[in-house]
Amino acid sequence: MRGLISLTCLLAGWLLLFSHSARGENRPMNPWEENPHYALAWKASQQAVEKLGRGKDGTLLVLTNAGYAKAGGLDSTAALEAITEVTGCSPGKGNLWVIHSALDQPLYFFFFSRRSGDSFYAETDEAAIRADGKSSFQEILSRETSRLFRHAVLKNISLANLSSAPEETEREIKKRAHGRNWASLAALAHLWILDLPVELVRAVQFHDHICPGVLSGYYLARFLSAQFPLTGDQRYFFIASPSYCKDDALQVLFNQTVGKRGMAVLPLSGEDQAGLLPEARDAAGIFFRYDPKTGKGKGAVIGFAWGRLRQDSGPGKDKLFPFLDSLKQILWMVDRRNQYDRYVYFIKTFDLLPGEVPQSYIRAGINPWEKLGLWDKNEKAKKP
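and the corresponding structure tokens:
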């Protein structure tokens, strides 16, 4: 019996050794490999490691929409496993960011070396994914990069390098020479260098890019937590009016989403904003804290001083280089994120009247700005 067990173990070892040899690598078969996205991510990651080095020392960042994009109609989550295996990067280490994406967007991988400033971007080709739907892991790896990726771009994106030829940088971005996602991912790479707090990273991942607008939402969140905090059983309710990028940050940071009825959106056109009184022109929204048990609550109209911020930050005044000026302003805002209260301020605070709830301000036919006495009735625009 003992001899039979030994023979069985020996045969199993031979089979395992044979399978490794046939695969040309010393690792076991991974069930993820049946998904072509795993192989595509492996291929892109191999290319990146060859050009930029591995990420185990914390100097490599990977940005991808794997897990969101369904290129070729297939789930792309398997790509995350390949990225971690090849590069050593992971969400837990803070150097693998999964960026929110629509299902029909192409699957992409962006790699950035903190040490050198070099980046490698690979955007998958939809036709190649469909063709590789039945291809083996090794067959996909053996193909040329150009046959698998629509864009495969190696470029140094250090601020010094991009700024050395600003006209060329802006021209490439405007023409989308490197694909539609390249510029926003390059900006995110610069953000990563600054070792952001994780909650800001989450907001940026959800928003899918970084911009002054989403950072203003982070400033607002810091202000609310410090100057308008919840107590007891209170809950927040936000009216996003005017609505812009800040609201994505607020939804993520407070879990106050439209779907969970923690936020209502009331857009304001340019004509509508002309209907606001001058003191409300920089309003960033109407914010409530409310206790449903006691029926009591308080509201606040909070503003964001964009004019002061633009004056302080400097870049962006001439708008000759939109991407570079925006990037410099973003970096400036991140560096001064603890000075949020210089730009966020109370325009008006008020108590909810007996019987009122925050939703009383968004009922059909109600203009909350008029209800709050911040609407110019003499303006042509009467309602938002």
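(Above: one complete record from the training split.) The chain has 16 helices and ten strands.
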